[in-house]
Specification:
Blueprint lengths: L7 E4 L5 H12 L3 E6 L2 H11 L6 E5 L5 H15 L4 E4 L16 H29 L2 E8 L10 H7 L1 H13 L4 E8 L5 H14 L3 H10 L10 H13 L10 E4 L8
Parallel strand pairs: 1-2, 1-4, 2-3, 4-5, 5-6, 6-7
Helix pairs in contact: 1-9, 3-4, 4-5, 4-6
Length: 264
């Protein structure tokens, strides 16, 4: 589809759901890919699956909330791939969500900020010198449409992720001259286990059937009438932005939400 063959890609939190779909998209198009997970069991399953598509897939355990772990992750990826051309920062959900502000504790905020903001800052600082030295790079922060239209029950994620829009803008200005683009992807709803777990907890807290909540809060707001497909709707966009055809797009937040957001 788009020429990314031989590009070296690091995708975090990538053994299931959106992360694995993104990793599979790059691997299917000839990229060299490193995936990560906190779980060794999930990592082995994902590697077994992805290496049937492309043997040039590597993986290591890593914790997005632990900065030492992220240092080790980047060292591993640089070692096995020889460099990092494309960084895709993906994260799971805070364990307390869905939760409103009154139900949060300061420890929840500390965890969410490490998970979403500090992980992205740390990973970017670690990979960008390598990109600068080669005069080329792509950085993607995977976020959500809800950072533009914050949801009360997603207060931890929406507040902690919103600074990534500013970070992408600043980095795009500082590093564009080095052939590096930085964009935030504002995702809509995709059929992942993480999304279903979060909504299941919400449905249970309200005493409502899961199917009713899924329809009202996920399906009904989507203008195109369907939930997203990770590889077709998100992966193809990342392939385009990772190619030379996407080299003029940087510093922006790109909605991939099927028309869910009503923000201008």
């Amino acid at each position: 589809m788009f020429p990314v063959q031989g590009k070296r890609v690091l995708v975090t939190s990538s053994t299931e759901g959106i992360g694995r779909g993104v990793a599979e998209t790059f691997a299917s198009n000839g990229a060299i890919v490193t995936i990560t997970s906190r779980s060794g069991e999930k990592l082995e399953r994902a590697l077994h699956y992805l290496r049937r598509i492309n043997p040039a897939v590597y993986g290591t355990q890593s914790d997005m909330t632990n900065l030492d772990s992220l240092n080790s992750l980047v060292s591993y990826a640089l070692h096995v791939m020889g460099g990092i051309d494309i960084l895709v920062v993906n994260s799971g959900n805070p364990p307390r969500e869905p939760v409103t502000f009154s139900g949060t504790e300061i420890q929840d905020w500390e965890h969410a900020i490490r998970l979403y903001l500090l992980s992205a800052v740390s990973l970017t600082k670690l990979v960008i010198p390598n990109m600068v030295s080669r005069g080329w790079g792509r950085i993607f922060f995977l976020s959500s449409w809800t950072v533009r239209e914050p949801q009360s029950i997603l207060v931890l994620a929406d507040v902690s992720r919103s600074p990534l829009l500013q970070l992408a803008k600043i980095l795009s200005r500082d590093y564009g001259k080095h052939g590096i683009t930085v964009n935030t992807i504002l995702m809509g709803s995709f059929p992942t286990e993480g999304a279903r777990r979060t909504l299941s907890r919400y449905a249970e807290s309200k005493g409502l059937p899961f199917d009713q909540v899924w329809k009202e809060r996920v399906l009904d707001p989507i203008s195109v009438g369907r939930i997203g497909d990770v590889k077709r709707d998100l992966g193809s966009l990342l392939l385009f932005l990772s190619s030379d055809m996407g080299s003029y797009i940087t510093g922006t937040g790109i909605l991939v939400d099927g028309g869910t957001s009503s923000a201008v």
